[in-house]
Amino acid sequence: MVEEYKFGSIIIDGKTYDYDVEVRWTGEVLSWQRKESHVVGVEDVERAVEQHPDTIIIGKGEQGVAKVTEEAKKFVTEKSIKLIIDKTEEATQTFNIINEDSEEEKGKQDKVIGLFHLTC
């Protein structure tokens, strides 16, 4: 699904995005904006949590500069959602692996959402 990530852009299913994105297991891609540019807080993950995914993957940028608050981590995990936080390149790879692995298992599609910060 995520074909390529490089600083400032991401290619998903043949389309290039030059802004931060929320990518859902359904293939839907939405703009993802945070209240504070390099901080991921509760309000920044609420929309993803409302989808009741199995896993949320947060990409913190090329160098991993963006910070995920403890409150946001707790908000996600208290909903019994697995949370993975990594640099964006690694986070996109993990997103693809989870999608590919779950598609191979008949009747078991993992609901995974990627929140990918494309810079810093």
- Strand sequence of the main sheet, in spatial order? 5-4-10-7-9
Please give the domain count.
1
Structural class: alpha/beta
Q: What proportion strand?
A: 25-35%
Write the H/E string, N to C. EEEEEEHEEHEHE
CATH top level label? Alpha Beta
Identify the overall geometry. globular
Number of H/I helices: 3
How would you describe the oligomerization state of the chains in this entry?
A: single chain
Head-to-tail CA distance between termini: 23 Å
How many distinct beta strands?
10
Low-pLDDT sequence parts: none
Gyration radius (Cα, Å) is 13 Å
What is the CATH topology assignment?
Hypothetical Protein Mth938, Chain: A
Helix share, percent: 25-40%
Please render the helix and strand layout as text.
Layout: E1 2-6, E2 9-12, E3 15-17, E4 21-24, E5 29-31, E6 39-40, H1 42-49, E7 55-60, E8 67-68, H2 70-77, E9 82-86, H3 88-104, E10 112-117
Parallel strand pairs: 6-8, 7-9, 7-10
Antiparallel strand pairs: 1-2, 2-3, 4-5, 4-10
Helix pairs in contact: 1-2
